Amino acid sequence: MKRPLLALSALALGSASHAKDLRSRTGVGFNQQFGHVSALSVRYGLPTPSPVMNIQVEGVFGLDTAATETGGDVVYGARVLYGFLAEDNLNLFAGGGLGGVNRAAENTLRLQPTMGTDFFLFGLENLGFTVEWGLNLDIGPSSGVSTTAASAAGVHYWF
Fold it and tell me: What is the pTM of this model?
């Protein structure tokens, strides 16, 4: 008899959860969206009239410091992300990015349509985990245009 009452009281007294409002906030962390290199990422939520409308701009920069014959890779770029669905502690977004991948003294321009989700665990409301999938459209000196399916993960702490 005590267990059902305990479960009901936990449900009744639980804290309310709301769509994550990231407007006018800055998130700092890392992701692997522009390449296989973990990159430093800074996001900023633009001020919008509604808390469920999240538009973010993001800058990324990463270095692959592993010693190889061709040297390390450098990844850099910028993206715009539009949150089209806001759930309890979860935001789904679509976006586009433009960046570069420097590998073996070759510069490659990367265009990136993407879709993903930011989710926030209860008790860690400022720590966002990101899962994304999308395409990398590469324009470079040796390959012309190539399309590669990509999935990536990231973590951002929001101030």
Answer: 0.81
Cα dist from 93 to 9, 47, 108, 118, 131, whole Å: 35, 16, 26, 8, 10
Report how far residue 24's alpha carbon sits from residue 66's, in angstroms, rounded to the nearest whole number. Answer: 36
Determine how many CB atoms are found less than 10 A away from the CB of residue 134: 20
Phi, psi for residue 48 in degrees, rounded to 5 = -130, 165
How far apart are alpha carbons 22 and 51 in whole angstroms? 8
| Integer angstrom CA distances of residue 114 from 45, 64, 97, 98, 137 | 17, 23, 8, 11, 11
Identify whether the C-beta of residue 128 lies closer than 8 Å to the C-beta of residue 158. Answer: yes
User: Token pair of 72, please?
Assistant: 């390390």
Average pLDDT, consecutive stretches of 10 residues, N- to C-terminus, the chain (159 residues): 51 52 92 83 93 89 76 88 89 94 84 92 91 88 70 91
Structure token pair of residue 93: 């977004």
